[in-house]
Amino acid sequence: xxxxxxxxxxxxxxxxxxxxxxxxxxxxxxxxxxxxxxxxxxxxxxxxxxxxxxxxxxxxxxxxxxxxxxxxxxxxxxxxxxxxxxxxxxxxxxxxxxxxxxxxxxxxxxxxxxxxxxxxxxxxxxxxxxxxxxxxxxxxxxxxxxxxxxxxxxxxxxxxxxxxxxxxxxxxxxxxxxxxxxxxxxxxxxxxxxxxxxxxxxxxxxxxxxxxxxxxxxxxxxxxxxxxxxxxxxxxxxxxxxxxxxxxxxxxxxxxxxxxxxxxxxxxxxxxxxxxxxxxxxxxxxxxxxxxxxxxxxxxxxxxxxxxxxxxxxxxxxxxxxxxxxxxxxxxxxxxxxxxxxxxxxxxxxxxxxxxxxxxxxxxxxxxxxxxxxxxxxxxxxxxxxxxxxxxxxxxxxxxxxxxxxxxxxxxxxxxxxxxxxxxxxxxxxxxxxxxxxxxxxxxxxxxxxxxxxxxxxxxxxxxxxxxxxxxxxxxxxxxxxxxxxxxxxxxxxxxxxxxxxxxxxxxxxxxxxxxxxxxxxxxxxxxxxxxxxxxxxxxxxxxxxxxxxxxxxxxxxxxxxxxxxxxxxxxxxxx
Length: 576
Ligand code: NAD
What we know:
This protein has 18 helices and 23 strands.
């Protein structure tokens, strides 16, 4: 199928009619079936993408620095993409650098409710063809996307994530390069495993499972904080044969735009993923009310997900199918130290787990429980690290932290810092400055009250709160941790005493979907620590695993009998 999407430069000069004809031709199902393929194909065994160092003088650093410089000089015009066609409404919003918020990187065009309708229709039309592709051919698109991201697209996607989402080079590299490459390499292998599972058969019959995609379209809604999640939420259902309407986060539009271009270059047919940036409530209202809504693939805050679920619940009976609702949501992630813990390992886990990417990871450590016997030592080590951390422009590689994402986040986090100044003790940090960039300095808070609100609520910023407990109350403290918040995403125990590790693992069994022993609770790797939490943290469908892909298929059982019975009577009926 010819690549029909117009490049950004040429789109404006083409007439609307020509564009629309081209798009319709492109998404119409092929008239003649493609030539078949005989043989059981196997996808390449997946391997985690190595994290590049960006050390001084390295080729990757030179390439990235050059792309950062060129991107900072550009002002990109980001279109809506429906059925492969780029649409510009003229009603635009700006994408800026959070660490230099007067610097505009892009203008993006907002979709209206009519565009969302068109996107749904385009997805359905594209689905008629895409759903019938051999799954290996769909997998090939994403395997190629992974390779493009590894090579020619790496600098662009990393630079967009750094400039528009204010990630340092290392945080961008592990997210927008490595994790997304891993999603695109591992999901095909998991799909292969899934498709291989078939029921029992014998000489008289052949039983088969047909792993159909869902009937309808999938609505993907993505968060600002991980480019890899933005890439995975629309593509995981697409891999399984679904077509998608994708609403990206307003504050991460630049990477979303480049991901669409990368996927087109990888051979993704028009209409399989349709990009509809816009007012979240308005876009969602149209998508969630459509009778053909087959599924929702969401990552973001608990409140938004609850709202979407309610909207769907209120309309049950109006859908053609029961929509699959998959959501990974908020967290209030803990580290608990036992008196036998290594104080240096604990301090590093607090520093990295709490403050990397400005604490804006769903998995970020934000409540810490330390025994009194260790606190002075751990505090001094942690404060030593925090006080060294440089905060600023992420293009200066010496900085450990950039800015928080936008004014709303800055104000919200600042209000928590103000609360801590009043109602707890700031151990170090507490400085906020929003004039040029949205900077919140790493802040460590100490409180006596185990139910203090900074230990309970998701702040989503670089504010870590410590509760010091009496050593004798270890077991009781585990109970407190289990019952303090509504969330259950990640958590960690630090202990050298194996009995304590076992006790924490059992007492906190339902308190985290990703549990760490002597390690920080962030940095899950695809294929190694399948990620997701329960309780108020989501449906725990483990992004980047077979468990997630299962949600995007709709299995059909087929029984074929080779010699059907020819008499309706059973032997027992022969005598009384
Ligand atoms: P958010 O909930 O503000 O936004 C997420 C998405 O929902 C965005 O695309 C946004 O535009 C959209 N949205 C906002 N209001 C909406 C509405 N009324 N109706 C429909 N859609 C709406 O979250 P965010 O600030 O982008 O991301 C931070 C949140 O995401 C945190 O709570 C964090 O814990 C969570 N998160 C969770 C995971 C996980 O795997 N559990 C991963 C990353 C982020």
